[in-house]
Amino acid sequence: MRILSFKMGGLNPLIQFLKSKGFLIDVVEDAEDALSLLALDYDYKACLYSDYLFAQKVRDKRIDVPLILFTGVPGSKHVIEELQYGGDCVLRCPIDKNEALAYINATIRRCHRITSNVMHVGKLRVDLDACDVTYDGNMIRLTPSEWNIFETLLLAGGRPVSKELIYANLSPDDVHVDGLKLVDVFVCKINRKFKSFMGEPITYTVWGRARGLNFNLLKGGGP
Question: What fold characterizes domain 116-223?
Answer without folding.
Answer: Arc Repressor Mutant, subunit A (1.10.10)
